[in-house]
Request: fold
Amino acid sequence: MKNSRSLDDLLPPVKERAMWLLNECRARGIDLLVTSTYRDLESQAALYAQGRTAPGLIVTNAKPGMSFHNWRVAFDVVPLRAGKLVWGTTGDDGKLWRQIGEIGEDAGLEWAGRWKSFKELAHFQYTGGLTLMQLAAGKVPE
Ligand SMILES: [Zn+2]
Reply:
């Protein structure tokens, strides 16, 4: 079971963009913590079970294979302010998240903070236009 926080577990074009995002944020005085990159199918199954057949709160709607994290093309970040994780989504916290999202988009990443359903401020991905089915079939983004 693997649930990685290392950028080395992302596909090269994704890692490249993630590093660009982290460096650009650092240059602007924003520190980011990477909380998740690659998750194997077993780890996704355990996460999906949480709040359903296992204790805890529901944290994902993605079954194994249905998360972009399972195909090494997605990662999650959380900003730090004065050493503390920022989880707020309104006011200054909301502004900070939006700023990070826009820097990610400048890096060529898709930011889930814009999604209409399952909006997720922490989530970035680079699929090169590939669907989950295509990724599952072994295609990789250029
Ligand atoms: Zn994510």
